[in-house]
Amino acid sequence: MKFTIKASFFAALFFFAGSLGFLSAEDILMAPFAPRSATILAQGGSFTAVARGYEALFTNPAAFACSRGSLTLMINPWVYGNPRDLLISAGALEPPADYTGPTTTFDDTTGLTDYLAYASKGGFGGGSSFGIGWVGRGLGLGIVSSTDLFAAGSPFPGGVKGYFQSDFALVGGLGFTLIDSKLMRLTVGADLRPTIRFYSPLTANTILDMIAGSNSSGTDNPLNNSIMYSGSALAIDAGLQLALFENLFFGLSVRDLFNTRYDMSQYPLGDWLDELQSSGIPSDGASVSDIYQVPMNISAGIGYHINMGALSWLFDPTVHLELADPLGVIRDNRSPWALLHMGMETKVLRFISLRAGLNQGYLTAGAGVKLLFIDLNVAAFTRELGKYAGDQASSGFALEAALRF
Questions:
Q1: Considering only CA atoms, which of 385, 401, 377, 328 is closest in space to residue 124?
Q2: Which terminus of the chain, N or C, has less C-beta within 10 A?
Q3: Cα–Cα distance measured from residue 226 to residue 92, given in angstroms and rounded to the nearest whole number
Q4: Each residue's pLDDT expressed in tens, for the chain with a length of 405 residues
Q5: Mode of pairing for the β-strands spanning 227-244 and 260-268
Q6: What is the dihedral of CA 82, 87, 91, 94, to 10 degrees?
């Protein structure tokens, strides 16, 4: 009876998720809450079937049911574009003989503009995330903050569009083990995620004005040509994981169940930044008539842990594949390649992790090392911004530094 009630509850969630996944045409869609985890990015963005630990707070809540719990304190910066090009333009690295980028540096009058013009086709920007969370023993609790700025396009500056997005989220959820035997282990989980979001569409000129520190007021401030939107929402996430014979894994997650609608207000960007610096976060913005939503995201994955027997202490690989956001691919008329994410993680000597993957047709790679409770990870990744594979590749680099107990 207990199993039937739990199974029926989660089946109902997934049924309604499928029926409510599409949005009306007048809705304004925003990106989901998704910190750029180096661990996940290195594995091609695939993680649903093998989700575990802190990363389960923003991937698959079924991992909350893990029999072992862990407390994590995480900081995670990332940069879009080629880090080498950024260091050369910053004057921190000598350009190699085959370098074809800007000859100016940020110390020159046009140095910053030259770099942004060069990097804008593939995209430039960066961000960071930090948080603390407990995952395991049937419980997932966390506080996660994530800030992201990205712009891309051509020609520069008129054709460059982007966004600034900053989220502060509380995550609280439960995980249940429905079946636990030698042949099969089935877990399900769900969480509530109250989130505060700040969001501003940007152009290249707006970004240059921000960097230049425009500080005039009212209509004289060029930043007031852009709008900062702020609001809050309550998101729901759900997921399941199935392990067969302790080596074959299946996963399904639904993020932003039923779509997540934000109650937004708006403020001229320049005045918002001025007030933020002088007296704190503005709270008296005008209401907006448009509906700002994060559309529901469904992901399904499969993974396999290769049993190396007596050699597992030396070489312990897991491979996995994920199909992510089919509703978004259909809605945006994107290539089926946008669905595909493949990854592999190999533990060497039990404290080194080597990772590789395929993200929407592009190779990804990374590595990590864990010594006692210190966990360090890096990743190089590429993603597709266009509708079809090869249209507009955008690369980046991510770091992670974590304390895991």
A1: 385
A2: N
A3: 33
A4: 444 545 554 554 444 444 444 444 468 899 999 999 999 999 999 999 999 999 999 999 999 999 999 999 999 999 999 888 989 998 889 999 888 888 898 888 888 899 999 999 889 999 999 999 999 999 999 999 999 999 999 898 889 999 999 999 999 999 999 999 989 999 999 999 999 999 999 998 888 888 776 555 556 678 888 999 999 999 999 999 999 998 999 999 999 999 999 999 999 998 888 888 888 888 788 888 889 999 999 999 999 999 999 999 999 999 999 999 988 888 888 888 888 999 999 999 999 999 999 999 999 999 999 999 999 999 999 988 877 777 778 899 999 999 999
A5: antiparallel
A6: -80
| Cα→Cα distances 255→61, 233, 237, 318, Å | 10, 14, 5, 24
Alpha carbon distance 60, 64 (integer Å):
8
Q: Which of 33, 57, 55, 47 is nearest to 294 (CA)?
A: 33
Residue 183 DSSP SS3: coil
Separation of alpha carbons 225 and 268, rounded Å: 7
Rounded CA separation 268/223 (Å): 7
C-alpha to C-alpha distance for 175 and 37, rounded to whole angstroms? 22
In our burial notation (b when 16+ CB lie closer than 10 A, e otherwise), range 76-112 reads bbbbbbbeebbebbeeeeebeeeeebbebbeeeeebb
147 Cβ partners below 8 Å, 6+ apart? 127, 128, 129, 164, 165, 166, 167
